[in-house]
Structure formats: C-alpha cells, structure tokens
Design brief:
Radius of gyration: 21 Å
Helix content: 55-70%
Strand content: under 5%
Strand order of the largest sheet: 1-2
Largest sheet: 2 strands, antiparallel
Number of domains: 2
Length: 202
Amino acid sequence: HHEGVITKAHYDFAQGVWDLLESTKAGAQAAHRDAFGKYFAEVTAQELTTPFGTYRGGYVPAMVDSRIVGDAKMRALVESENQSLQFAFPATNRGFTKGRVEYNRPLYLDLRTLAQHIDKVLLFSNLEVPVRDVRRLLGDVSGTLNRFDSGIISGMFTPWLNRAARQQVTTPMTEDAGLSRFLTTMRARAGMVAMMGNVANA
C-alpha cells in the first residue's frame, strides 16, 4: 500500500470476503455437531492494522496449487478415489472442516475457488444431516426392500442419495482419461442449445 498498488478498496473487499465466509460458519458448525457430535476447530481471525484503519480479519480456505506442487496431484487422485468409494456411503463433502496448518505448500490463489468453497459449505450445512437420516432409514427397511429386490439399495437408492447429497446429475468416473468431463461438457452444451430453441448465434 505504500506504493499505492493496494488501496482501501482492496482491503474492504478482502474484509467483505472474510465476512461472507464467516456468515456460513454457524450453519456448518451446527450440522457438524449434529452429524459428528462435536464442533470442528476454527481458525481464529486476527486483526489487521493498515493505513486505512483496523480490519477484523478472517479466514479463507487453503487450496494447494496442483500446477506447482507435484504431490498435490497425488492428493487429488486419492481424493478422487475416495469420492468413488463414498458413493457406497452417501455424504456431503466436509473437507473444509479439516485443518491445513501442517501442510505447507504453495497455494492456489484464485478467487473463483471461493464459490466452490461456499457451495461445499452450504451443501454440508443443509444436506449432511438429512442425508444421514435417510441413510439410517434405508438401513432400517433394508431387509424388507431386499426381499423384493436385492439390488434396489445399491443400484437405485444409494446413487440417488449420493447425487442428492452432492447435487450432481451424473456419477463421476475415475481413470477415464477425461472422458466423463468431455461427455458432461457436451451434454451441458446440448442442453443449452435445446433451451435456447436451437437458435444459431449471429
């Protein structure tokens, strides 16, 4: 800020982002307590003194830059495999509740990731407990359902519950060399064309 590159508007924007993320924390804490019986550890905000005043500070999620850090790609692969396993045990993503203080690597500083973080927090806050309730209910009636169809839970209810928990229309595949992403993109574009009445752009 001494050189005029960082202005008061930048600090105000940063504080606005911190406040936005802070506003989502209460719901996530309540859902975490209901689901796991305890609150997750929070990062304590530290005040920041600037020539433009003192700001409350806050927290933003830490994401490792996989373009720089090679082991981040390995972690992404593990997370992808874990996600495929989670389709057998439907739940939302709660990675944002876990600390990152012991992992010191270059971070991915892209504001667009904040939208992904907020999406994960809102999914967890609103769907984690209901999904667990439905999963528990299915466990109670699994014997009766299996007498009618032995594959109905694994073939219909579990995939449906997982898509509801993650708000995904399709089930992602691993080790497909990007095929699922390509098909998803093509399906989205085809849907946009149909929605717009197949009108060609001028």
